[in-house]
Amino acid sequence: MNPTRSSLDVALAASALALTALLTGCGSLPDRPARATLYDFGPLLTAPAPAPVDAAPLPTLSLAEIEASARLEGTQILYRLSYADANELRPYGQSRWSVAPNQLVYQRLRDALAQRRTVLNREESATMARTAGRVPRTLRVSLDEFSHYFESPARSAGLVRLRATLIQSAAGGDSVLAQRSFMVQRPAPSTDAPGGVKALVAASDAAIAELVTWVDQVR
């Protein structure tokens, strides 16, 4: 018997066993955590309504960043079970907004307002005040509720609540021109995160439409 050949056979067999053990071990490793599904409001597809021919142009408006509670400044998609505990906000595990809800609402509101007037952010408004000596009205909005609301295990809706304040700034200080709250619910097509997203987008668009109409009417 050739001792060299025997030693080589033993080494090859040992390598094969080690490779088999390695492959078996890899197969037993836990799967990668699933990536969260990201949602936003999607494109704004509604065409602006044509303004009446004799309508006066609407004044320039400054839109402040939308305020929200700390819980709504994150990207979690939140739901409430009113039949269990309506005071508890719960997050969906594998579904998130692409950015915080107050930012999504801000962009949607700005797009809606800009269909009929010039809309400035805070920096643009400050520049206008310095260069033109005019301070436009400021719209401040707070997002007070933004959740997938379950009335029962089989029935749910997107619930959005906004509070809007229209302010005029002057040398003597700010004055409140008008203030109003808006609360809108829209039924969810399914009792899960995708259904909640669709309902919240629909409720947000409806609340924003009401808010824009209200702003346009304040004189």
What does this protein look like?
With 219 residues, the protein is of the alpha/beta class. It has a single domain (58-217), classed as ABC-type transport auxiliary lipoprotein component (Rossmann fold). The chain is built from 5 helices and 9 strands, in the order αββββαβαβαβββα. The protein has helices spanning 3-27, 82-85, 101-113, 122-132, 193-217, and strands at 37-39, 61-63, 67-68, 76-81, 86-97, 119-120, 137-152, 155-170, 173-187. Strands 1, 2, 3, 4, 5, 6, 7, 8 and 9 form a 9-stranded mixed β-sheet that branches. A hairpin with a 2-residue loop joins β8 and β9 (173-187). It is elongated.
Name a few traits of the molecule.
single chain, 219 residues, alpha/beta, Rossmann fold, nine-stranded mixed β-sheet, 5 helices, 9 strands, 36% helix
Indicate the structural class.
alpha/beta
CATH fold group: Rossmann fold
Give the low-pLDDT segments: none
Order of helices and strands: HEEEEHEHEHEEEH
Question: Largest beta sheet, briefly?
Answer: 9 strands, mixed
Mean pLDDT over the full residue set: 84
Given the structure, what is the number of helices? Answer: 5
Q: What is the CATH C level class, in words?
A: Alpha Beta
* Helix content range: 25-40%
Number of domains: 1
Label the overall shape: elongated
Spatial extent as radius of gyration = 28 Å
Number of strands: 9
CATH evolutionary superfamily: ABC-type transport auxiliary lipoprotein component
Pfam family, one: ABC_trans_aux
Protein name: ABC-type transport auxiliary lipoprotein component domain-containing protein
InterPro entries: ABC_trans_aux
Organism: Variovorax guangxiensis
